[in-house]
Amino acid sequence: MLTVYSDDHHLHHGRCELIDGQLMPCFEMPSRADHVLARVQHQALGPVREPEDFGLEPIRRVHDEAYLNFFKGAWERWAEQGHDGDLLPFTWPARTLRRVIPKNLHGELGYYSFDGGAPITAGTWQAAYSAAQVALTAQAEIQRGARSAFALCRPPGHHAASDLMGGYCYLNNAAIAAQAFLDQGHRKVAILDVDYHHGNGTQSIFYERSDVLFTSIHGHPEAEFPFFLGYADELGEGAGEGFNFNYPLAAGAAWDQWSAALEQACGEIERYAPDVLVVSLGVDTFKDDPISQFKLDSPDYLRMGERIARLGKPTLFVMEGGYAVEEIGINAVNVLEGFQYAQ
User: Fold this and answer.
1) Which residue among the candidates 9, 35, 63, 159 is catalytic per the annotation?
2) Which of 7, 85, 108, 148 is most buried, taking the most CB atoms under 10 A from its CB?
3) What pLDDT was estimated at residue 287?
4) Which residues form the Histone deacetylase domain (predicted)?
5) pLDDT above 90: residue 261
6) Number of helices (H) and strands (E), helices first, in the chain?
7) Exposed, middle or buried, 336 (CB in 10 Å: 0-12/13-18/19+)?
């Protein structure tokens, strides 16, 4: 299996995030991708290559132009004001406020963010842009006939909506790749999100569409981030009604409960009969993850990969979350090896 990876992810290294009422060191750090890459190489999973550059157009197919312009230029504006610390929002257009776009940098950042967990640094735009190119390069490998490929993206993407960053995510790598498949002739794409946290951004991008089926297994939003999406009654709207399936689980869920939800999601994917499958591969479902509450163990990820392989679809794996840094490589590569062995 080809792995696509870019060293540009090191350009994004936030100093802090707002969590539990404090500015804390970021859980989303460069060593996450470094550990996954090291495991890919140690296990001889397959070749590793740098991404091609497909430009902004495939990103524009998913993300709002004004949002991209803001994100691309935010750090320069911040630096021109004499700052060198992370750029983090502190005001959001909440329910009783108007959704207008201010001209002030902080106001714009609040408009285009939904939490204080996506710091912008000097290298964030380039890192996120390169992560999208990683996903597009792996997508192109499958478009050329490969049965699988691994996009080792960092920063992750599944919380990013068309004009919204948050949850460590800026550009939605999985959605960009899914749209690229459609633009290149596929009729139907399925997305399976196995990250502990609901892929709210991906859901919102495709919620009113029938050409992308979105399925997600995650911590119940009554108690878990991102809180405001991910309930089981969210089934899509308009043309997208019946093409969105959420499987929220309570804290403490282990493989027996989690795999039962996976079976339901796989059943929906089989009924949908997509041309290709995109997996948002988060491994923060691990029992020792510091910010998650499921109890999967490392061997469970082999079984996860095996079950996904039985869907029999060309499959693009896109790296998302996972914050038990020492084990992230083992768990992510276990999914990929389980998939390969079962083919």
Assistant:
1) 159
2) 148
3) 98
4) 28-336
5) yes
6) 10, 10
7) buried
Residues in the chain: 343
> What sign for the dihedral angle of Cα 135, 138, 143, 147?
negative
Structural domains of the chain ordered from first start: 2-55+122-342 (3.40.800.20)
CB atoms within 10 A of CB 208: 14
3-class secondary structure per residue, 104-132: CHHHHHHHCECCCCCCECCCHHHHHHHHH
**CA–CA distance, 277 with 157 (Å, rounded to integer):** 17
Span 173-198, pLDDT tens digits: 999 999 999 999 999 999 999 999 99
Q: Is the pLDDT of residue 343 over 90?
A: no
Contact 116, 88 (CB under 8 A): yes
Could you report the per-residue pLDDT of 326-341, keeping only the tens digit for each?
Answer: 999 999 999 999 999 9
Q: Do residues 9 and 154 touch, judged by C-beta distance below 8 A?
A: yes
Question: What is the structure's pLDDT at 319?
Answer: 99
d(CA 24, CA 292): 16
CB neighbours (10 Å) of residue 65?
11
DSSP 189: E
